[in-house]
Structures are given as C-alpha cells and as structure tokens.
Amino acid sequence: MQDEEFIRQFQNGDEQAFDELVRRYQGQVHNTCYRFLNDVQDSRDAAQDIFIKVYAASRQFRPEAKFSTWLYRVMINHCLNVLRSRKRRQWLSTFTSRENRGNLDHLSVADAGGNPASDLEKAERTRAVRKAINSLNSEQKTAVILHRYQGLSYQEIADIMQTSVASVESRLHRAKLALGRMLAEYLKED
Amino acid sequence: MICKNLKNRLSAYLDGELDARTSSQIALHLEECSSCKFEFERLQKLNMFLEAEEPLPADPYFLSRLRARLRNEDRKMPVVSNAWRWAARALVPVTIAVGLVFGIFLGTHLTEKLSSDADTAFKISDSYFDEDVFSAIPQGSLTAEYTSLNHWEQNLEGKMP
Known about the structure:
Radius of gyration of chain B: 44 Å
Structural class of chain B: mainly alpha
Number of helices of chain B: 6
Order of helices and strands of chain B: HHHHHH
Structural class of chain A: mainly alpha
Oligomer: heterodimer
Distance between the termini of chain A: 44 Å
Radius of gyration of chain A: 18 Å
Low-confidence stretches of chain A: 99-104, 106-112
C-alpha cells in the first residue's frame, strides 16, 4: 500500500496506519538525523520528535502531496533547528564533552570486531568526513546528506528543499568542490 | 564542450542525473581531455569516500518508545485551540505596533523636554555672564587692564608739553 493511503487512513483515526509509516521510515529518519547531528542519542531523540510532529500535524498533510517529501521537510527543519540551538548553547557555555561524545559514538559502531588498526583508520576517516560535511552551509549539507546517504534524486531533493533541480545540481557541485578540498589528503592516499 | 562548463556538470554526470545527449557529450570529452578525466576520477574517489560510513543499526524498540512518548505527550499537552494559536500569532504584530507608537511618543516628548531645557540653560548663562566675557579682551582681565594703562600713558604723553 502507498504511504499516502496510510496517512489518509491515519487521518481517519486508524492508529495502526501511523505505526506502519513509522516502521517504513524510522531507519531513514534516524540515519538522516545522525548525518546531521553526529550523535547517536541526539539523532534517536530527534527521530522520535520528528514522528511526534508528524503525528500532531498529520491533519495539515494535503492528500495530493507526497508523504516522504513532507516527512523529509519536517525532518530537515527539525535537524537544522537542533543544530542552531546546539550552536547557541555552545556559544553560551564553554565546550562540553557532548560534541566529542558524538564523534566517539561512531567508534563504538565501527569497531565491533575486525582489525583494530584498520578500525582506527576508518574511524579517523569517518571523523574527517563528518567534519568536512559539518563545515558546509546548511543548504549544501542538506543536499549532500539527502543525495549521498539517502540516495534521493536531484528532483526529489529539489521537491523537499522547495527549489529547482538546477539549484540542487549547483549546491551539490559546490559542496563536492569544498569537500574535495577539505578531504584532499585522504583522497590522495587511495 | 568547454572544459569549465563540463567540470561544473561532472558531479551530475557521475550521479546519472543528466539527459542522454549531454551524458554522451561528456563521455566523449572525457576520453580526449586528461584534465577533465582527472577531475572526474577525483569526484569518483570522493563519492566512494563519502559512502564508506555504514548506516546505524535498526532500533527494535523505536516504535514502542515512540508510542510511550505519544501517550505521555497526550497527557501533558494542554489543549490549545486553533483560535488561540491565531490570537497568539496576531499578538506579535500588535505588540510591535504598540511598541512603535510608544517609541514615537517617547521620542517626541523627550525632544520637547530637551529643547525647553536648552532654552532655560541659555537664559541662565546669559544672566550669569555678560556678553563681554566672550569678547576678544574681556572686561576685568589682565589684557584689558594693560590696554587701558597703555591708553592712559599715551594720553598723558600727548598732554605733556
């Protein structure tokens, strides 16, 4: 069954239909939040918050729209808001271990078994990629995350970001130029 | 195709986002141009590098935790009707307008008060200081005394036989 049919059923009071949508998208939402926030716990909380927002705002969903586009829009706005408030908090207080914890989170995921040296190298590369992506502006970052990690087409990204395909192409092109510069030393090694 | 234009479109070409005609033009150019080919290979490497990170493992308790939170939110959330929400939104421009009017009133009032204060200050200064105080040789100053002495001496010399 199509997502739009599930949301229509949910709008008519079928709670099971909402659960089905959550099952379908929880992985994508959680992973995308993780790309934005770089912290497993924060991204889990954010994913929950996003579905709560979707639950509360389901009446606003127009039947002619695509559910996934709407969901992604809610998600991106939420993640960017979390990043903004995190920046404010960082500005107000001195650096806490929160950000560092975010970086270390991935080590626990990556180093489950295998060669410790290569795991360490992998963690180092992951850190470099995250740092590089984080330094992009929010539009470029969103385009890169949706394209590279969610596998969305330029048209889908344009719909989510409410812009043109040409603009998405240009954002991705500039983002890759910047990423190429920042990750130059790692790209040389390969 | 000019290299600069092509380089701008390489990323979209690699992502399979270009139409067949443009794609074949780029493919042909890449066979001939080593600089563009180098750029293309760099982009390929970058794409692979970015994708190296594995996705997070699925969370089996996600839905049950979400349901628990939804039950809690339902209990906690005060019921705010749409009318109140609209009223709250409308309050923002009203507050700004009131602030502006108050600011203009305060500004005008203060300016009037300041100008009347300035008038009073001028009057007081006029009563205390003679205009002569600000002349080139103020009355009672050493220069004035010296000048008058000088005049007196000259007069005296003129009268002497």
